[in-house]
Amino acid sequence: MFEQLNKNEAFLIEKFKKHPLFVSINTMEWSDFLNILIQRRFLSLSIVNTYELVIDALCDLESLKTVRSILSEEYPRNTKGEPLLSHRELLFQDLISLGATREQILTTAETQETKIIRQKSLDFFTKNFDHQYYEIGILTALRFWAEVLVSIEYEYLWKKMSERLSEKTNDNKVKSEFYYFHKIHDAKISDIGNESIFGGLTHSDELAIHLKRLIASPEACDYCIDIESDICNLKYKFYDQFL
Ligand SMILES: [Fe+2]
Fold first, then answer.
1. 147 Cα: distance to centroid of ligand 1 (angstroms)
2. How far is CA 228 from CA 110, 124, 222, 234, in A?
């Protein structure tokens, strides 16, 4: 039953990877690249709101546990329970390591396009509230918008930033604490229905397990296919503004 959905995901991922900005990323001026990352940060800042919104909207207790647990990872703690740097702070740190200044990050205004895309992204989680597949829809949207496509974005942006961020620190860790790890732990590794728990699950695959459990008809699959297609178009448009 998930064949069409998985096929569509593969199609959308390939389409997204072919965005002209990703294709030409290596020849882009560094200042233009930093500007994209600074605009992209506005979407990262809205991820917490999105996760909170989905937590309020979900009634399915099992998926709620997973969503809550992914959100809690945004605010890591050490073994004594003391707060460590949040993922937003790590993002800020990576931007500084890439050559952005604090002033530049803090004072660059969100473009009108970014604002619209951020708002339209949030709409995915509130529209169709009365629809019979509403919960399946928001889980699908969350997984595709905040995990599957994010890892593709960072995979391609990483190609440009890796030369400056992949050098190792004194304790032999990759210097990037944000982009590099999200590219890996958000990625879709398995098709929906084929998740393997061996080796640990990525965020995409953790959420896919709930989709497998909740999607019970080809109609529900079609509903998810439409949502993922709309989300892919929206993310595509975010990068269009820089062409
Ligand atoms: Fe994630």
1. 5
2. 25, 10, 10, 10
Distance from Cα 139 to the centre of ligand 1, integer Å: 13
pLDDT at position 170 is 63
Hey, which CATH number is domain 3-240, 3.40.50.150, 3.30.450.20, 3.30.565.10, 1.20.910.10? 1.20.910.10
Total Cβ atoms within 10 A of residue 213 = 11
CA distance 146 to 153: 11
User: How far does the centroid of ligand 1 lie from the alpha carbon of residue 159, in Å?
Assistant: 19
Nearest Cα neighbor of 187 from 206, 173, 211, 174 is 206
Q: How far is the CA of 209 from the centre of ligand 1 (A)?
A: 15
Instruction: Summarize the confidence of residues 64-87 as an average pLDDT.
Output: 95
Report the Cα 45 to chain-centroid distance in Å.
Answer: 11
Distance CA 81, CA 23 (A): 43
**Under a CB-based contact definition with an 8 Å cutoff, are residues 94 and 177 in contact?**
yes
Q: Per-residue pLDDT tens for 93-102?
A: 999 999 999 9
Q: What are the CA-CA distances from residue 236 to residues 12, 74, 233 (Å)?
A: 10, 25, 5
Domain segments of the chain as ranges:
3-240
Q: How many CA atoms lie within 13 A of 216 on its CB side?
A: 5
